[in-house]
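agent> Task received from the user: take the single chain below, predict its 3D structure, and emit structure tokens. No templates, no multimer pairing.
agent> Plan: (1) validate residues, (2) run structure prediction, (3) serialize to tokens, (4) report one or two observations.
agent> Step 1 OK, no nonstandard residues flagged.
tool_call: predict_structure(input=
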Amino acid sequence: MFQFSYNGYFYAFALIPLFVMLFIRMRIIRKRNIRRFGDEELVSRLMPEASSRKVLWKFVLLLLLFSLMITGIAGPKFGTKIESQKRKGSEIIIALDVSNSMMAEDIAPNRLERAKQALSKLVDRLGDDKIGLIVFAGEAFVQLPITNDYVSAKMFLGTISPDIVPVQGTAIGKAITLATSSFSPASNAGKAVIVITDGENHEDNPVEAAREAAKKDIIVHTIGIGSVQGTPIPIRTKSGQRDFIKDRAGNVVMSRLDETTLQETASAGKGIYVRATASNMGLTDVLDEISDLEKSEYDAKIIVDYAEWFQWPFGAALLLLLTELLISGKRNKFRLF
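)
tool_result: status=success, residues=337
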């Protein structure tokens, strides 16, 4: 991959047409002055060593030198520098509910977006722990396998929406079962699943799934997001109008937080249940629990930075400068210019 650190310096290239116009203007003025002095051919014979070609070549070299200097100042970078480092951490898989009910707006801007914002901050605080991401509605899918690449984790978080899972519903049990099988099989690190959902499970038995995970020394924490009283789920009609999801009888569906299911799931998974609020998503409490997990050493490939290439355009500019200085404005006897 190739990029520049400071793209704003490229605006300086707008000066090149100005330099060209000034050069042409100076050549026109020079010819005009020669005509005033006398016959142009006669004056040319009186100055046999003067070379218009060399002046042009020197000007072209100076333009190239200017371009290379701007390119160097812009900070070209090519490829990446990757270092192998020893790290020690636990493994965490986030299971995020992306069902339509997560679009309810009892937590601004809505349940799903608020959860994504909190998870982004969580990733910034992880340190050396590995992270994975599972999304679920009626089915569960691995969105990001276990990794220490936090940049990719945040990128995948940004792409999450209810549309990425075609089957609607809330299969918390499937998400926990999938997470259980998605950890690194050979790792001795402590393992934890964090389920973020409104708890309206309609598909399976999340308590039993959490109990099975606990048997494999995988802790299951749950975070409940939403209101117990319930709130409607907004949608957009085909005409673009705002409306709410209704049942077959035409009644507005109210999405309610099912704290009982989430509490029982966390208890079976030997974890904790936290209720999210507008000001506190509860991830800090869960992280405090995760910090006590056993750490395991692993090899991590870390992208340190792009390799700097600024020295190449600067080096080429120096060569052009030396070349320009060596070219005189006079003709030589070999008449190369």
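agent> Step 4: summary for the user.
Residues 333-337 have pLDDT under 50 and may be disordered.
agent> Done.
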